[in-house]
User: Fold this.
Amino acid sequence: MKAKILIAVIFFSGMISAQQTQKKTEEIKTIEEVKLNKKVFVKKSDRFVYDVASSPIAKGTNSFNLLQQTPMLSSTDGKTFKIMGKSNVVFYINGKKTLMDAEAITEMLKNTPSENIQRIEVVTVPGSEFQVEANEGVINIVMKKSKTNGYNGTLKMNNSQSFYNNPSSGVAFNLRQNKWSFNSNFNMGSYRERENYTLTNGNSTFQNNSVGTMDDPNKNYGGSINIDYEINKKQNLGFSYNMRYNKSFGSVLDMTNYENGILSNRTINQEDAQTRNHNFNLNYEVKTDTLGSKLSSNVSYLWFNRDKVSLGESFPLKADGSYSAFQQAVPQIINNYAANIDYIKKFRNESTFAIGSSYNYTNTDSDTRQNDFDGTQFVTNNTLSNHFIYKENIIGAYATFERKFSDKFSGKIGTRFEATLSTGDVVGKSDIGFERNYNNLLPYATLNYAINENNNITYSFSSRVRRPGFGQLNPSRTYFTPTNYIQNNPFMQASKNYNQEINYMYKNAFYANVSFNYADNAYGQLPLQGQTINNLTGEKIDFLRYIRTNYGNNKQIGLTLGMNKSWFGDIWTTNYSANFEYATFKGGVTKDPTSQPIEGITETLEPFVIDVKTLNTFFQANNMVRLSAKKDWFLGVNYWLMPTREVEMGTFYSQQSLDLSVKKIMGNFTFLVEVNDIFNSNIDDIRTKQANGSYNTVRSFKYGRELNINVTYNFGNQKLKKAREVKSANDAIRSRT
Assistant:
């Protein structure tokens, strides 16, 4: 009897258990059928966040193409990005500023699979903790992470056909084993650029026209190694090395010149150049509590070397002409030593306090040598030969405090202090030199208010310093023709910039941005027309000198309207934006501070006056259409238009580009075919005219129509965790090399 009861209990228990199991299974199946609509584009307190992992366009492409589809970002040259069509960009990866120069960053992005990215953060007004200048914005790329041991990698091959055929390839490899993380990449390629130039300048009595071509062959090699060791759960030690080598031998600029419509001469400039860039960084990080507080420190060394030698020749094409030539060597060596320490303290009330300090020492050595042909031999031109040594010390410190007051209201305030001590000297020329010591206190503030689930508004203010690039300070020339050239200026000073923005977002899809930017003591590259007169013979030579110099101030009021939204069940993804900017540029330049008196020669300059008030616009429409239910065929249709606009040095005529792409995903392979600038309409054309009748024109046609064929193969465990990216102490210096 007891046995029967026991059997019955077991039977009914089994039935109850089976019913519960079936019920749980049904619940699980029900849960699996629920579709979660995650927000793809959202506004945080001080940044916009684009959740790439939740976007339908993030499959089977590279990071560069993905950034082109990111709201607020645009690229009109296929090399660099701007935020809302105006602000320059500084790249961060996992919150750490990249260690590479602009060219290396482009190659890295084009060789990084988009599947590796979790989200992209766009910071339009960076806080005090960011090492940026002027009105630069920040793009922070957050990579996917996993604790899985193993390896993965990417092989990539690309072939580009424009005027010339340009192949490239790259490989990236990642490894994680317990406490060790390692990643590396290597890219190589050759590309040859072709440009057609038309240069015109003159006045009511004189006109000079130059037409010709530039051929510039390049070979690129680049790579990086990142190693991270987890000492324990609280401490990490990291090392990184980045290198870049560019070789451009045999570059030729061939121009035919006309004076007042009469054939004058032909000038040929031949150039050999190579650039080497090495950066080493050691990083230590320790977590101080369980809330995320941490202390990090970095020491870095940067070595940059660019060697350039050129031969410029002028061949007479008229009876009274004569042959002339010059040799020029323009080397530049930059050594930078840097260190920084940062501490972030997090509190339980969702507040964050951050403090940090940094030190940068930079030594640049530019020994420019120019030899002129005197009819029988080359002799040293002491006026244009300058051994320029520039030393710069920057001591920085910052503090920020961020507080979330409620679910709707949050804010962040901070300030950055920078003390700059710099000297510049030309060896053997006591009249060319300077010493500058200046301090800057740079406040920052942002307030964010989430009105409700669908509406968000933010106000931000920031002030920054913009320092000239090291190459711009080297008192050397870059020649188009013997009388048309760019003149660098060691006497350029830093400018002060003030930025304000109001951002509004509706339903995480539509946004509006109103901005105001003011630059005091702004600088740029301005055209100075002039004439040299030989006091003995009376011979007059007209020239056009583009001099880099401070000119005055500029103000910009901007409005950006944009939309990022998917339609018809993510079949069609759109990213549209329109930028409107009212700008005023005021100032001018009346003299060239780099000019040195030459015995027997008188030089006169025509003042260049800037008084511009203009409304500039920019439009962009990116479309990605999924062509198959399997999500393995995609069509891209992208278009941007930049109508005629006014800038400091004149009128920049309209530019536009229509790009088409087709993408096919086959397992671990991705095939991408792109046609860029289908109508060959992305042309640089800038024209300047002064009230006194002086004018000049620069038109450059770069053969923008281009066919790209990309093949990418991903291998290994694609959920592998990347090595921890670290911040280099000399990040702020690299953008100026």
Observations:
- The helical segments are 2-32, 63-68, 102-110, 470-473, 731-734.
